[in-house]
Each structure stands twice: as C-alpha cells, then as structure tokens.
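Dear all,

This email documents one entry for the complex benchmark we are building for the journal club exercise. For each entry we list the sequence lines for every component of the assembly. Then comes the predicted three-dimensional structure of the complex as a token string, followed by one or two observations. Please use this as the template for your own entries, and keep the labels exactly as they appear.
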Amino acid sequence: MTSDMQAPPVTELGRARPRKEDARLVTGKTNWTDNIILPGLLHVAYVRSPFAHARISRIDVSGALQVPGVVAAFTGEDFGAEQGSLPCAWPVTPDIVIPAHPPMATEEVRYVGEAVACVVARDRYTAADAVSAVEVDYEPLPPVLDIRTALDDSSPRVHEAGNKSFEFLLQNGDLAAAFRDAPVVIERTYRQQRLIPSAMEPRAVVGWNEGDEYTLWSATQIPHVLRVMLALTTGIPEQNIRVIAPDVGGGFGSKLQVTAEEVLALLISRKVGRPVKWTESRSEGNLTVHHGRDQWQRIKLAADSDGRIRALDVDLLADMGAYLMLVTPGVPLLGAFMFNGIYKMDAYSFKCTGVFSTKMPTDAYRGAGRPEATYALERIMDELAAELGMDPLQVRERNWIKHEEFPYDTISGLTYDSGNYEAATARATQLFDYDALRAEQAKRRDSKDPVQLGIGISTYTEMCGLAPSRVLGSLSYGAGGWEHASVRMLPTGKVEVVTGSSAHGQGHETAWSQIVADKLGVPFEDVRVLHGDTQVSPKGMDTYGSRSLTVGGIAVNGACEKVITKAKRISAHLLEASEDDIEFTHGRLHVRGDPESGHTIQEIALAAFTAHALPDGVEPSLDSDATFDPENFSYPHGTHLCATEVDTETGMVTIRTYVAVDDVGKVVNPLIVDGQVHGGLAQGIAQALYEEAIYDDDGNLTTTTMADYLLPSAADLPHFTTDRTETPATTNPLGVKGVGEAGTIASTPAVVNAIVDALRPLGIRDVTMPCTPERVWRAISEAQQANGGAA
Amino acid sequence: MTKITVKVDGVTYVDDVEPRLLLVHYLRETLGKTGTPIGCDTSNCGACTVHLNGTSVKSCSVLAVQADGGEITTIEGLSNGEWHPLQKAFHSEHALQCGYCTPGMIMAAADLLRDNPNPTDEEIREGLEGNLCRCTGYQNIVRAVRRASGSEVKAQ
C-alpha cells in the first residue's frame, strides 16, 4: 500500500478474502465441460485441412462409416444453408469486406486446420480412428502468408474480393504542420508477432437437441453473446436455445468467440438425435483457436528538441487471418485510441489496414489492441530519449498528462477521468532503486562487462471496462456494453446474486459477495453468486475487456441500492415512520437518531416474503434488477520498470528485477488484484521473450504443441515486486478500474526496452520479439559487424 | 482387451481395457474421476499429474495397462476430510485463478515436498517446471508451496 492511500474503513471492500471458488477447484470437484456425461452421449472428431489454401474436389466419408462404433459422418454439404456463416459483430467501416465463413468448409479451405468433415462415434478413440478413414481430395491453391505483400496486384487472393478487408483512419490536429520543421523526427517499424492464447483448459462443447430445445455447454467466456449469435447463425429460435458455461479454465480472449464447433454441435445433435461432445486436443487447439496480435507497425514521431512530442503518425498492417471472426477487425482498431497513451500532443494520425492471409483468424487476446499500441509507443519514447540524450523517465514526464489536468480530453478523442502518473512513477522508481541500477549499468558499460544491464520503462494507461453502448454504436459494434445483475433477498435472509458476467478464473463469486456483503450489511458467507447459464442468468454481456468489475460489479452495486430503497419503504411502513426518516446502516433499517429501533434487512426480507403488512403499491419479495451502462471507459495506469541482464556472448536475457506499480482505482479484493497483475505480467513477458506462432513457407503451423510454442514455466519467470497507487475512477460509484489486462499491456515494452537499453551502446535499437537468445545474439553479431567487427 | 487391477484413491477396481487406453482417460472416463484434467497431448503441461505408487506421473503419458497392480492417488484422494496442507495453502495464498492446472500443480508440489521438505523458491520453481499455469504467473504458487512446506512465507 502506498502513502497516498487512505486507511481503509472496516468494510468488505478492500479485504483480502481468499476465494469461495477455490473449494471446488483445489479438491477436483470442478465441473469442466469435458466432464459432462449425458445419456447416449456421442463423440465428435473433425477432419481438418492439411493445406493452407486449396479447393475441395471430393470428400468421401463412406470409409469412416464402416468403422465399428461410428454412428454418422458429415460434410459441410450435409448441413447446407442451415450451418449459416460464422458471425463478425464488428464491421468497422461501411465498406469492410466480410467473407462468408461456413462453420464447415464446402468449396475452399483457407487455413491449415479448417474443418471439412466430421465423424460421430460412441467414444473419442473410435471417432479419432475414423477421421483417418475419411477421404478428401484437394486441389492446392497458392497460400498468402505475408501481409506486407498481400496487397500487391501480383499476390494470390485469399478471397475473390481481394486481400484487403478494410482501411480505417482516425486523425486529429494538423499533422503536416506538426511534422514540418520538427527538430526531431523518428520513424520505426515494429513487429507484433502472432501469439496463441493458450488457456489451460482446451475448448470443449456439448450440444443437445431434444424436440424444440437446444442446450449447448461450452468452455466459453460469452454464454449470452453466444446464445444470440447461435440463433442468428442457425435460425434456431433464440428462446429455444440455452447456453451454459460451466467452470471454464481460462480464456484470455480465446473463448470470446463463436466457434464452428459450437454451431456444429447443435446441428450434429439435431441430425443424430443424441447429445454430442467435442473436446479439442492441444495440437488441434493451437491450429484452430483464434490467434492474437500479428501486426506490422510503422510509427513516426515528431518532437521538439526539449523532448516535447508534437505529433504521432501510426500506420498499421493487421493480419486478419483467413476470415473475420467475432471481433477480429475491431481488435487492432482499439489501438486507434491508445497509441497516444498518457501523453499530450498537437496532432495524431492512426491508419489501420486489415489484410487477409491463409492463416488461422486472429481475434481478441489479453489486451486486444492496447498491448500493441502501448508497445510501439513506449518503444519509440525510448528512441526519442536516446536521440536527445535524455533519461527515458524524463522524456515521459515531459509529455505526460499532469495529475491536476484530469479529466483530460486526449488527442484520439477519449476523456481520461482520473490518473496520477507522477505518484505511480515515484513509487516505482523508489521500489526499483532506479538511480542505483543506472549507476551499475554505467559501471558495467565502462568495464565492458560481457553481461550488460538494461533498464526498461513502460508508463502506460489503457481503456477497458468495455464499454459505453453509445460509443460502441459509433464504432459500428453490433451490441451494447452494459451489464445486468439481480440481487434477491431470500425469505431466510440469505442472498442470491445473478450476474451477467461470466467468470473463468476472475473470482466473481468472491468479489460480488464482497460488494453485496458491504452494501447490504449481510455476512459474506450468506451470499451466493449465480452465473454462466442463460436460463439462470438470462441477461448479460459476459466477460472480456477488463469489464466485469467496472460494469458488472457496478450493476450488482446498483441492484443492492434498489433493494435498500425497497427495504426502506417496507421498514417505514412497519415503523409507522416517514420513508425519509429511515436510515440504513450496517444491515439495519431504523428511524434516524434511534439505531436501536427498527429491523435488520433479513427481517425486512421475511416481511417482504410473507407480505402480510406491505405498504400499498409494494410488491412482495425483496429483490431487484439493475443494468449498468458505463458513461466512459475505465483507465487504469501505472509505471513498470524492468532490469534485464543480457549476456552479450550468448544472447541470454535474464530479468533481474521487475517492479509494477499499478493504479486500478479502488480495490475490492487485493488478493485477486495482485493475482491478475501477476498473470498479466507473465503473459506480457512471454510475448517479449518466449512465444511466437510460426507458419512455414507452405502455411503449416509449426508450433502446434506446447513443446514448440513456449509458454513460460515457473523457472522462466522472475519474482515480481508489485504495488499500487489509488486514484479512484470518477465514472462509477465504487471508484474501481479494470485490472485484467493491465499487466500484459504494460510489461512487453518494459522488457524489450530493457533489452535494447542494455545493447544500445552497441548501436542496437531494436530486437524483434520474441527476444530469444538466438535473436539477441544475432542482433549483437550484426551490430558488431556493422561496427567493423569490434567486439 | 487387457484385464487390469488398480487401486485409485483407496478403492480397488478391476477392468478390461484397450491396451492403448491412456491412464488419464481410464481415470476420467472409465472411473469418472474427473478431478484430473487434460491440458495438452505432449506431456508438457502437467495438468493431469497424479501419483502412481507414490511418485508423480503425468497420467497422459502412462497407459492404463502400465498401472496394473499399482496404487494411484489423484487430487480427489489427496485428503480425507480435512484439506491437505497444499490445498489449504493454495487457497490462502491465492495460488489459483481458473484452477485448471491446480490438481496437477498440487500433486506435483506434493511430490516435490516429499523429496525436499524445505525447498528454496528457486528449487520450487525448478521443481514445478513441468507444470504450466497460464493465470497466476506462478508467484503465489511458489508462496503456497513454501507455506505448505512449513517454511515461513516471507516477503522478498
């Protein structure tokens, strides 16, 4: 805790409660989708394209049908028009090209792994066996693998309409004037490599059609959005579809999707008249769970000689992959509002071109658009500092929005409600011992130590808490950004909370219980949180974009307020007092000035249930609903400092110290917040050092396993020093900000800045991510050759 | 089919199994012991870790027939009534988020502590290298294992 944090009151909010969820998770009593067994359950396995791009000339499933235990086999033709086209909910420009995307390909395949047929069998081993008995003939077509040349006239086409999906432009200020005669102009191109989200639970789906009713269990982040989209895609009436997200083992954006396998589970079940299950293998998942990032970023900055930024000009090429999935085109676009970060400037231009390739589609991955923006911005801020010989902290301070300037209208059109970049930076430099590390760095440089020290800085903010519905509408998004909650006081005084948020590791059962316990003055243990089933929780917009607390949690808070208002009316009636004279404190309703009088809220709940003596016009039962639509995004921020040791002989990078000071406003549960920060840091560091999805020259993914796609283990990550400053959000009643993605957004540039900082005396100003020992070693070798071979 | 006899979490089972059946599928689908999940197909992630004859194994890399005559403990049989110190420590130190890796992580940590009752943080990190977690960044897992080991949980 920091000095500017007030002493917390004795309250549930801010209390480090171990989680309610853990009881089932640490004992193996969890209800994963793959655990589900239903009477007559059959297993589905998919036949997938081995080609990046090919025409399907023939599919023969008859061999599979001969395998004992195989019940059925289907091709895309068998589903015809009923399989529809997988939805893209974010047509970012009026002229965007959204190609048809049948869940099961019928004519052409456009990435390795695209489903072309399936077999349905009594068990998963038989289904897997039968896949190899399906014959498919392909006529290979040329793949499109590099989006930098995909827009050339000579490039093969992914779709008939061409390889460009959209071009989006956002500009503010006089860019030409800002660049004209600018004393400093810096231009860089950065690569955001392709990533595989890698939630630990592979995707799993169970579909069951009985009569008119369709039930889908899925390892999804978005049961509510999925229900709507299943109805729109398949034509099954929405009221007949129930979607259940049981316990879900992580998502990170990868389960923010409407997948082919989800749609097909319902259609296959309808065809075979029995429930069907499909659970992917990890290798299948690496191929066919949407990927993240994959951009080429050209960024150009104009500044004065004292380091003041005049303007920023950003030009992105974003790899869409073969199709536009749920929010594919919107992901790079979120960067439009974030490339300016925490800095003031006179002019700004953001252009993004979405390009098709014959690879797995990209879509949301932790941070979605904001890590990419923050990376390029924080990298070029270091370049600006180097160019001017300034300390990189100093050049940031020169440009950031001062704490007294909030609320602040940014150059990209957002209004940041609150922030204190000075406080977070002061705390971070203190914990990091910044000056001592700079002194050690100088010493190692002087002594030509083979192990050089680098210091990386990332002063970030991000936009989360997605999102004000009106803003989403202005960005052509196909849905709102609200969240719903119900709070029900039961006759025995216990509380049921129904939330539209859909947790998959975030701990909503605990945090929402804390909000309700705090608000209603009931014991934490007496609150039960229900979620993740559209029949139990009929309204919701689900969990992504660090939105659950700042939108869903506020809806819970709002429902509690309505419950209190109703309880006051009942209490006033029972006490024969005026409603205006009733106070509610610590779970008791009483006449003002007489706290011993009155009732507990549990007594009022019983009175509302029996309904023997309710005031006129008050309906029985003490419960309420609330829907919260935020007026603004949430803007957490912070300062991250990373010290790396870089072995110049081997290229090995070791993180020695990592300090993260984040400001996420008011904190409901510090245990959960710290956990989110730790996990976010791990993923951001993993992008900097370890992870990359690689396609070969034929368009085969070569990183299909966890042996090839390197997720960091405990031995690969450092101990993190974390702390917080607390500048409450002014746009919601709890003063909270999002935290789920902050660590990922901040950490990638901090690490790479540290590596480049260590190597800058060699003339190195970039290392392409992931900064593997080989890449770092090659960068050093090339620099040494360019410097005339001097070691 | 091959007949096997195994004792799982204290109960003896006799079953005819296909020789190719993986132990993890035997546990999950034949016995309904779904507390042990599957996270990958190349034995990298460790989510399916159980104890076979007192040593941790990745049950996706063991055939059910190889466990014939053996004694298996899964996360479901780790405690009798009261939680195992590792289960308590994972809860109190917030060493899990989605919880998918947790059964394997706890079973691997139990084996680690049996070999080395008072490991350093570095020894814990290296000892759990075969178990991947995507949520926690491992920091609280290290704290939890240290707490369960009886070593004092100290701030670094």
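Observations: The two ends of chain B are 54 Å apart (CA to CA). The first helix of chain B runs from residue 23 to 30.
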